[in-house]
Specification:
The structure holds three protein chains of three kinds.
Chain A: H1 15-19, H2 26-64, H3 70-74, E1 77-78, E2 83-84, H4 87-118, H5 123-137, H6 140-154, H7 161-185, H8 189-197, H9 202-231, H10 234-237, E3 244-245, H11 264-273, H12 281-311
Antiparallel strand pairs in A: 1-2
Chain B: H1 2-7, H2 36-43, H3 46-82, H4 85-90, E1 94-95, E2 103-104, H5 107-138, H6 141-156, H7 159-178, H8 186-210, H9 214-222, H10 227-238, H11 240-256, H12 259-264, H13 289-296, H14 316-349
Antiparallel strand pairs in B: 1-2
Chain C: H1 2-17, E1 37-43, H2 48-61, E2 65-72, H3 74-82, E3 88-91, H4 97-107, E4 111-126, E5 133-135, H5 136-143, E6 165-169, H6 174-182, E7 194-196, H7 199-208, E8 212-217, E9 225-231, H8 243-247, E10 254-262, H9 267-277, H10 279-287
Parallel strand pairs in C: 1-2, 1-3, 5-9, 6-7, 6-8
Antiparallel strand pairs in C: 3-10, 4-8, 4-9, 4-10
Classes of the chains: A mainly alpha, B mainly alpha, C alpha/beta.
């Protein structure tokens, strides 16, 4: 081995090679180039997914612009659904979401508690987990068929807000179960053990230690449930939404639970496929309001989760 | 409730000394007056709340069974009298309202679902897995967070909005680029559903990649492998099952997608494949199992049984849609079960 | 178990939101100072726009009445009427004898028919398509099972795209059934047509697709499409779907738009129907792109 100061080396390909033993060889350089190419290739794939999304959203926004105003949200459809706003549909969606949350939240959270805190590692727990996965994987139109068969016909609720919300509740249940389970799972076992050793009962531990420490995670799940329930059309189409229903502009409680209602997602479908002579911008504006509505909830969930992660001390 | 009894002697984390809970009275002092929900929990006795938890725990199983039961209940009369297995699955004649001869063949619908799913996976698998690799291995923390948020928003866009995008953006675009005769076709729906399946593929695949122990990476890098070599020589083989599960769940999502497909495929009972080159015609309009239910259920009347217990032929349309529902339920169940077994498989290996 | 599970939340929700809104038809809500009545109106997708426009307009005249409109199709409307779920069923076809019997069996009342307007099913093509006229026979060749017309050149037209794209409706819509009965003589449709779910969707698709032909209500015309004149037989004169041609019964694909009530309607439903048949209500028909009934012909 020649010392570095002994002039040009026969081994290296250049003078710097001689200066530094760890300098890149041709092989390393080629490898680094391959790595950079791989990085850009994968980056391009990610961009190919994300950029069209942004472009499409921008396009929708531009086309919707002429109709977007505060009035579009607070007014009722006017001029034969060719103008006005989406107020009754927005309120209808809020109704459906609220009722389905009222049903799904307690069941989902308790089921999450069961799976994380009570279930043992046996076939039965596996069956429950599989059922949760399957409930999430069943197509929304199959949930719609279930809603028709079980709530509209068998339970005799008819096409109504109740039947539609119950269908949505069951469809969105897995969202809550899974996020509750994950939130609880993030609470360190040592917390629980400390309490058990003080003689606390199982439920006491959950109530005083586990739940308070996982509440943000559970809330995130509830918010995501709202977003999911607000966006889905198929399950409510046959269980309780209507094309049009006259309501007073600005009324907060225009529907009763046994009524049918309008809903944003279905409204987008009908203005796209049914309403004649609608101005160009109307379906775009409806789409923007619908997407905006779910994005508000999703952003809330994202913010909540980020803050939670920043706050976590263990 | 029997399962509750069976489960009673708790519990998974029962290594501690306190034993099965239930006997101890709930502690009052600590939580008094801390909000209505807390107080509500407080007022319930331990025993009640624990049984409630068990009850809700098994609810998922109850719901899955009741979904099957209620769909079966509506579809059963058709299965009993009008059903011809071979015709149902192997005839392309979907003519449930014909006045000449009603026939219920879903072969073309199966092909339609297959075509859309296939095209969706052609879009979603490479891009989904690529994005997952990029997020997990190649980018910095900032980029990763930003990408994950964007992909979460991608997942949040409602399916009817996707359908709308398919109709007004993708359709005209496809006509302009490919010169297709009509914009509502299998390719349109395939791209839309592909974009919709990307988020689930990315999130599961990323989890699988992250689950590969860092030792593997370190060992490979110490041997002089580049990141790219690490990815495809070490991480891909190690995360194989997780990636497969990601793809399977993407397939499940694509098969079950309804509104977007209803608005983007054109809904034509048509097999997009024949002997002509190129054998598979992605620019043909098709119809899928899900979209057929969604478009026809609203107008298919539910007709009651005649006095002698049989059903008039007109009643079979409504019932046959529920039978398609059963088929869909079974298909997605199988896909999800396989994905679950694949994932369980890796856990066991570790 | 299922029934119980479904009813339990119902009780709670009713208790929580019971004061929320209207009751079903005719029964004023006791708890409210200004009782609101709901008229439930379901049925034909062809009529759903018209029904919505009436509902919206009627609200100005009678602010305490709320008309609930939904589509779903003629068959669904009549079925719901026969079960007593709705007050008025819209149908773009006539009620069948068995549907009448069903209603009588369930509710003890016979459905009563109200002709509230006329509609023509127009044949639409892309506005650049050179075709001007078409016969029933040619339509059957395009849409019907066994029909051999697949290309525009077979009709002697040089369209931008030669392949004919058939825009049809899903197989149980009233328009589909009407077209099958009158143009295809009750024979089946050829498979492979696009089964659009809405009347507007058909016209939109034809407007985007140079090679397409479709049928839909005449009220849905846009600038991107044009009407084709229709002749019932080869050699017979072809008529465009204009107001005059429909009213004079020259256009061969015209039909009445019907509403059905259970027996003689009462209360708000009665007032609503009377208003629909009044000049003010019929003005809406015109605005919706349909043809009003002549004065005094309503019942």
């Amino acid at each position: 081995m020649s010392p570095p100061e002994a002039g040009p080396s026969t081994l290296g390909s250049g003078p710097d090679r001689a200066a530094n033993l760890f300098a890149a060889t041709d092989l390393t350089r080629r490898k680094l180039r391959a790595q950079r190419i791989a990085k850009y290739a994968f980056g391009a794939m990610a961009a190919a997914i994300v950029l069209p999304l942004l472009l499409i959203l921008a396009y929708l926004l531009v086309r919707a612009w002429p109709m977007l105003s505060w009035g579009f949200i607070t007014e009722v459809p006017a001029n034969f659904m060719r103008g006005g706003g989406v107020w009754p549909a927005l309120v209808g969606t809020l109704y459906l979401v609220t009722f389905s949350l009222l049903v799904a939240a307690p069941i989902g959270v308790l089921a999450g508690i069961y799976l994380n805190e009570f279930a043992r590692d046996n076939w039965f727990t596996r069956a429950v987990n599989l059922a949760v996965i399957n409930l999430a994987g069943v197509p929304s139109i199959v949930h719609a068929l279930f809603g028709v068969g079980a709530f509209v016909i068998f339970a005799g609720l008819g096409k109504s807000i109740l039947a539609a919300s119950l269908t949505l509740a069951i469809m969105t249940l897995p969202v809550i179960i899974v996020s509750t389970k994950e939130a609880l799972n993030a609470v360190p076992m040592a917390f629980r053990q400390a309490c058990w050793n003080l003689g606390a009962s199982r439920w006491q531990v959950i109530r005083t230690i586990v739940l308070p420490n996982s509440i943000s995670g559970i809330l995130t799940g509830l918010i995501l449930q709202v977003s999911r329930a607000a966006g889905d059309t198929a399950p409510i189409m046959f269980t309780g939404v209507v094309f049009y229903m006259a309501v007073e502009p600005g009324t907060l409680l225009p529907y009763s639970p046994t009524d049918q209602c309008m809903a944003l997602a279905y409204h987008l479908y009908t203005v796209t496929t049914q309403v004649q002579d609608a101005p160009e911008a109307l379906p775009y504006a409806t789409a923007v309001v619908l997407i905006g509505f779910v994005f508000v909830f999703n952003s809330a969930a994202i913010i909540l989760r980020t803050r939670l992660r920043a706050k976590k001390k263990w | 409730m029997k399962p509750e009894e069976a489960m009673r002697p708790d519990s998974q984390p029962a290594q501690d000394a306190s034993g099965p809970g239930g006997a101890a009275p709930p502690g009052r002092r600590r939580t008094a007056g801390r909000g209505p929900i807390r107080r509500l929990f407080h007022s319930l006795s331990e025993r009640t709340i624990v049984s409630l938890i068990y009850l809700c725990g098994i609810s998922a199983i109850v719901f899955v069974f009741s979904i099957f039961y209620f769909i079966f209940r509506e579809g059963a009369p058709f299965l009993r009298d009008g059903f011809d297995f071979q015709k149902f699955f192997f005839s392309i004649n979907w003519m449930p309202t014909s006045e000449v001869e009603r026939s219920y063949g879903i072969l073309a619908l199966i092909f339609g679902t297959g075509a859309v799913t296939l095209l969706a996976m052609v879009v979603a698998v490479p891009f989904g897995l690529g994005t997952a690799v990029f997020i997990a291995e190649f980018c910095g923390r900032r980029t990763r967070e930003a990408l994950k948020i964007l992909i979460e928003l991608l997942a949040a866009i409602p399916s009817v909005a996707w359908g709308f995008i398919g109709m007004v953006v993708m359709g005209p675009l496809i006509v302009r680029v490919t010169g297709a005769d009509v914009g509502a076709n299998a390719l349109n729906a395939g791209i839309i559903v592909g974009l919709m399946s990307v988020p689930i593929i990315v999130s599961i695949a990323e989890d699988a990649i992250r689950a590969v122990p860092d030792d593997y990476r370190a060992a490979a890098e110490a041997l002089g492998a580049t990141r790219w070599q690490v990815v495809y020589k070490v991480i891909f083989p190690a995360a194989k099952s997780g990636l497969l599960a990601a793809v399977l769940l993407g397939v499940g999502r694509a098969v079950g997608e309804t509104m977007a497909v209803l608005m983007a495929t054109g809904n034509a009972v048509n097999i997009p494949a024949d002997g002509r080159f190129p054998f598979f015609h992605a620019l043909d309009s098709v119809s899928t199992l899900t979209a057929t239910i969604a478009s026809e259920l609203g107008e298919a009347p539910r007709i009651g049984a005649l006095p002698d217990g049989s059903y008039p032929p007109a009643a079979h349309h409504y019932q046959s849609l529920f039978v398609i529902g059963i088929a869909l339920f079974v298909i997605t169940f199988a896909v999800n079960l396989t994905a679950d077994l694949v994932v369980k498989g890796i856990r066991k290996q570790r | 178990m299922g029934r119980l599970a479904a009813r339990l939340p119902l009780v709670g929700l009713l208790a929580a939101f019971g004061c929320g809104g209207g009751s079903s038809s005719g029964k004023p809500n006791a708890g409210k100072p200004a009782p609101r009545t709901v008229v439930r109106n379901t049925g034909s997708d062809t009529m759903v726009n018209l029904a919505q426009m009436w509902a919206e307009e009627y609200r100005r005249i009678s602010p305490n009445a709320s008309v609930e409109v939904s589509g779903g199709g003629s068959g669904v409307g009549i079925r719901d009427l026969a079960q007593g779920i709705v007050d008025i069923a819209n149908a773009s076809r006539e009620i069948t004898a068995s549907e009448k019997a069903q209603a009588l069996k369930n509710t003890g009342k016979t459905p009563q028919e109200w002709i509230v307007g006329y509609d023509a099913i127009a044949i639409y093509v892309h506005r650049d398509n050179p075709v001007q006229e078409i016969t029933f026979e040619q339509l059957a060749g395009i849409f019907g099972k066994g029909g051999t017309i697949e290309r525009w050149s077979q009709l002697g037209a040089a369209a931008e795209k030669d392949r004919i794209i058939r825009a049809s409706r899903m197989n149980n819509s009233g328009t589909y059934v009407y077209f099958r009965e009158h143009v295809l003589a009750k024979q089946d449709f050829k498979l492979g047509a696009l089964g659009m779910s809405g009347s507007k969707e058909v016209v939109e698709l034809v407007g985007h697709t140079p090679g397409a032909i479709g049928y839909s209500g005449m009220g849905y015309k846009t600038a991107a499409v044009k009407f084709v004149s229709v002749a019932a037989k080869a050699g017979a004169p072809a008529y465009a779907p204009t107001f005059e041609n429909v009213r004079d019964k020259k256009y061969p694909l015209a039909r009445s738009l019907n509403m059905y009530t259970l027996g003689e309607p009462q209360g708000e439903t009665r007032k609503y129907l009377d208003w629909i048949l009044s000049p003010a209500g019929q003005a809406v028909v015109r605005q919706a792109g349909y043809i009003p009934v002549a004065a005094g012909q309503g019942q």
